[in-house]
Amino acid sequence: MCACGKQHKAEETVKDFLDNNLRIKEYSVNFTKIDSTKLVSDSLIYVMRTNASKNASFKSGITYNANPPQRIYIFTKAKIYIGKDTLQHTFYLNPELTHVVSFKDS
Questions:
Q1: Contact indicator for 87, 57 with CB cutoff of 8 Å
Q2: Phi, psi (5° rounding) for residue 36?
Q3: In angstroms, what CA-CA distances link 106 with 4, 13, 71?
Q4: Does the pLDDT value for residue 1 go beyond 70?
Q5: Distance of alpha carbon 59 from alpha carbon 38, whole angstroms
Q6: What is the rounded CA–CA span in Å between residue 65 and residue 97?
Q7: What is the pTM of this model?
């Protein structure tokens, strides 16, 4: 899969996650280019998930469908536009780009 294909797949995975978990359904989103990191620990993933559960923009009880440890995480930063508000988050995905593993405020 070429880099542009991976970018598209990552964006679609995050959009699906947003569609399922944002409280507001009408939004638009812009992404940065995907990158990878090995510097995110399992405990940090769980801290991000705990913090995300307190984020009023998202529904409670988020299901991630992928758990640490992952050998590497793919991430992208997103600007989510809801009306006049802009949310900025970093989303971490599994290496196959099929699931969001966690996210944090950017």
A1: yes
A2: -125, 155
A3: 23, 18, 23
A4: no
A5: 28
A6: 12
A7: 0.94
Nearest CA to 49 out of 86, 96, 58 is that of 58
Query: Considering only CA atoms, which of 20, 28, 40, 27 is closest in space to residue 90?
Result: 40
Tens of pLDDT along 28-40?
Answer: 999 999 999 999 9
| Residues in the chain, overall count | 106
Instruction: Give CA–CA dist 32/78, Å, rounded.
Output: 6
Q: Which two three-digit tokens encode residue 99?
A: 């699931």
Q: Which amino acid is at 72?
A: I
- Dihedral sign computed on CA atoms, order 40, 44, 49, 54: negative
Distance CA 56, CA 38 (A): 29
Q: Which residue has the tokens 């294909």?
A: 5
44: helix, strand or coil = helix
Reduce the DSSP state of residue 45 to 3 states and report it.
helix
